[in-house]
Amino acid sequence: MHTYPTQAVILAGGQGSRLRPYTDDRPKPMVEIPGTGTPIIGHQLSWLAAEGVTDAVVSCGHLADVLQEWLASAALPLRVITVVETEPLGRGGGLKHAAARLPDPSQPWYATNGDIWTRFSLREMAAFHAERDATATLALARPRIPWGAVETDAFGHITDFIESPPSPYLINAGVYVFAPAFTSLLPDRGDHERTTFPGLARERRLAGYPLPHGAYWRAIDTAKDLTEAAKELGAAHPQGA
Q: Could you tell me which residue ranges the Nucleotidyl transferase domain spans (predicted)?
């Protein structure tokens, strides 16, 4: 029987420059999905709690005080502490800095980027991770291409137009399961996706968990993403989420 992680890190320190003016006075995870009245991080914390997480460490940076004030005043479904980078540590360094505050370093943990809007079973992902005895597991998404695609035949005639087809490539979805040993492999400063992950991949200790068919996933990077997320949310859950 698997022991599912009960602790998680949320990386919430990004500048969110492509989401301006929404991020002029708040960090990206504090931007609200239109129509929900709740910031992105609020939805993430509810999701983590529903998946059995009892403790979360939120790594703050840009406009950290705004995020900390909201966390202090909100009715949260789990225990949350914040850590603030006093100097930029890079994504890997920031992850290691936050992981040092997890309540039990001998147990596995989840991590998520603070701008991800998704719903799927983290427990199933954790079971996938354990079955492969992986040191780290990445959720993998197949995003839609934001342009219309054109199909042609062998002679060069256009045969069809397809609006926003799924990408032929899987991408890192920004949600992770990590074994306890992973923390010590992170750089003190720098990007783990350029250092730690390639090393684990060479050793076959890095697993990729494709998001289940029909699972909702969107990275909130631009104002258009906010609009699309609100539309999709309204279509799927007319009463909100």
A: 8-233
